[in-house]
Predict the structure.
Amino acid sequence: MAKAELERIYAEDGVIYNLKILRDTGVFTKKAVAKMLNDGRLIKEVVKDEHYFRKYKGYAIADAILEEVKTKDCGHIVIKEYVKKGNSKVWNRTLVSELETWLEEGIGHKTEGYESQVVLPEEEMYINE
């Protein structure tokens, strides 16, 4: 896997993007990673099989995204969880938490080749069916 030489999080028109330039190839990527709604909610879609941190029993958000939403009057973080069914993904549940909970109860995590993240265990979130 090529490692990012430059990585940056930025927001444009309510969408939060992760920008990367890959060191090995010079390829530039721009990926939407979350959406900020006008009512102060950050929406992040995840596929459980790919994003769930079993070690912490929860989900992670990049430090840079949390820093970005702190400046945007964000009150709640909404994680829309999907599961894989064959070649498609199906909504499973929605987990909701307050931004303050991420900042106070979140666990710092760093994996080589990825941005620093904060993981929040599910027990700190509530399920909104």
